[in-house]
Hints:
Elements: H1 5-8, H2 35-47, H3 51-67, H4 71-87, H5 91-108, H6 114-129, H7 133-150, H8 156-171, H9 175-190, H10 196-209, H11 214-228, H12 237-252, H13 256-271
Amino acid sequence: MNLDVFDYKEPTCPLCSGKEFYDYDPSAQQGSIPVPQIIQKIDDTLNREEYESAKRILYYWLEEAQSLRDLRGQLAMYSELMGLHRKNGEKEQALSAAEHGLKLIDALDIGHLVSTATVFINAATVYKAFDLAEQSIPLYEKAEAVYRANLEENDVLFGALYNNMGLALADLERNEEALVRFEKALRVMSVSPERGLEKAITHLNIADLFFDDDEKCSAEIEKAYALLTDETVKQDTYYAFVCKKCAPAFSAHGYFLMAKEIQQRADKIYAGT
Length: 273
């Protein structure tokens, strides 16, 4: 009588079905979390500035992804947590999320993907936010290399990259290099008329570089204000978010009436949501 291996092989997972009944791999992925739906929920929550709620949602789904051994799902959650902890000024948690995210990229061997470049940027922005700008530059450079290999040179994703990289270079007092990045960002965003809000942020970044040059600084401030008060811009929660973010920059340069107007625009929208 011929014996089949399964006549005597002991099950490794009695509660499993199929192949895993005998050959259960404890490291194998058991499922996936619904990342697109989670991200949409997080975006809606953050637009209402409900940061603690967003945090609870992210950590809930992070635990779910871990229990399912869903590495890509974990990476998506850590990427979101980088930004959330950074905005809340939570240094240790933000740096931990960045570290975990970068390790997952290596484990998955996906450093060449455009979606991964976003994680590089998020991690770099964390380092920049907590006075580690020197560590952020290599990550921005990785993201730039991925974009150049996969995207058209005027893709809008370059705009955000150049803006963030410019800020890190400015922190390191590499102002000429920073200005080059900001100008690149403006060129990219000029291709898309709907990018007026992002252009306003860039003009304010350039104004900071020209802090000691009143004429150049004033010109950048005026450009930013014109873009933010353009009545053709959609007056939604994202607009309110950008206005709230930009208002202190006008005050920092002594443009208090402009700052008040921009802040009031944000407050009006938030009051109605």
